[in-house]
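dumping this here so i dont lose it
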């Protein structure tokens, strides 16, 4: 029997109207648990217009800009303006390193929400964790500037052993976030980091919907703690060895838009095997004389990656008259057993 996820889970069909965007492959942090850094990254970087059009064409209403560190993306102001002008709800998740009142005013004007990832109320501890030096006054002033634009702010905190690992430290973090002016807080368990893993269900006595089987009983829950709206994100056995792994799990797929302008089924941990049979079809038509080279290039002129692949193979055909190599359909490998 397959394991069926809770309907409130990401993999259970919730949040299907969200499109995650891997906006940039650069990050100035060195978080030890980061599962994105060793993952697959395309070589090609599409212009911001291509990324914006792909997000709009996805028909998703909520667009969340991730990375890497999205505030290092130089055209984020242009991208968010175009998305907002098409009535997209735009969210940016940042480590806060670039965040100042001036940056918020100049680059985040058309954003609807900002998530700031800070993993300790002690900013020196956060520096040790991430390598990012933050100043409380700058955070406070930046949040105040964002609020002037009616932009909501959530503090994201990964709960890490020896940092945020008890009820008292969760309380201290919430009070700290409230004093900064944040509207919400999210506490998340670590993915694929057994040494630093903090079991939220255990330390909070299984309150607020926290449980020992997040795959079946729900990995995402909300509460009000100390006057602050709080979201909890638990990891199931697909994401941590601290819990039993579901057998033959059923999961809803999700879409991720990469900075090459292409949408993939989930976050990629290894390079896709290659694009699809469209390459083979175009090349066969060129080989048979049904399609002129110039017409073939016009067909894919708006797809630089496909254009590069086909032009190389067309050149090889013209020069050496070699047999065409058949392409292989894209193979999607879910990230460490889970797309989320």
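and the seq i came up w/
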């Amino acid at each position: 029997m397959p394991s069926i996820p809770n309907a409130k889970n990401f993999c259970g069909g919730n949040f299907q109207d969200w499109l995650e965007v891997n906006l940039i492959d650069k990050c100035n942090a060195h978080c030890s648990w980061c599962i994105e850094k060793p993952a697959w990254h395309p070589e090609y970087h599409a212009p911001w217009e291509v990324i914006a059009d792909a997000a709009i064409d996805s028909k998703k209403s909520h667009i969340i800009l991730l990375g890497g560190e999205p505030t290092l993306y130089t055209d984020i102001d242009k991208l968010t303006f175009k998305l907002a002008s098409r009535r997209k709800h735009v969210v940016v998740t940042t480590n806060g390193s670039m965040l100042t009142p001036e940056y918020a005013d100049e680059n985040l004007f058309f954003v609807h929400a900002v998530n700031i990832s800070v993993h300790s109320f002690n900013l020196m501890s956060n520096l040790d964790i991430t390598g990012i030096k933050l100043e409380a006054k700058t955070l406070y002033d930046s949040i105040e500037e964002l609020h002037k634009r009616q932009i909501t702010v959530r503090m994201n905190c990964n709960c890490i052993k020896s940092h945020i690992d008890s009820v008292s430290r969760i309380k201290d973090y919430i009070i700290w976030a409230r004093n900064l002016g944040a509207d919400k807080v999210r506490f998340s368990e670590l993915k694929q980091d057994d040494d630093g893993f903090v079991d939220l269900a255990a330390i909070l006595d299984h309150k607020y919907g926290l449980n020992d089987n997040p795959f079946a009983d729900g990995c995402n829950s909300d509460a009000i703690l100390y006057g602050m709206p709080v979201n909890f994100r638990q990891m199931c056995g697909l994401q941590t060895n601290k819990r039993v792994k579901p057998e033959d799990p059923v999961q809803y797929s999700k879409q991720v838009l990469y900075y090459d302008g292409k949408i993939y089924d989930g976050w990629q941990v290894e390079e896709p095997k290659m694009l699809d049979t469209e390459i083979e079809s175009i090349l066969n038509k060129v080989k048979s004389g049904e399609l002129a080279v110039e017409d073939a290039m016009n067909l894919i002129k708006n797809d630089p990656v496909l254009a590069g692949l086909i032009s190389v193979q067309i050149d090889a055909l013209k020069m050496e008259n070699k047999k065409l190599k058949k392409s292989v359909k894209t193979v999607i490998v879910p990230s460490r057993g889970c797309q989320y």
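The chain has two domains: 18-269, 272-340.
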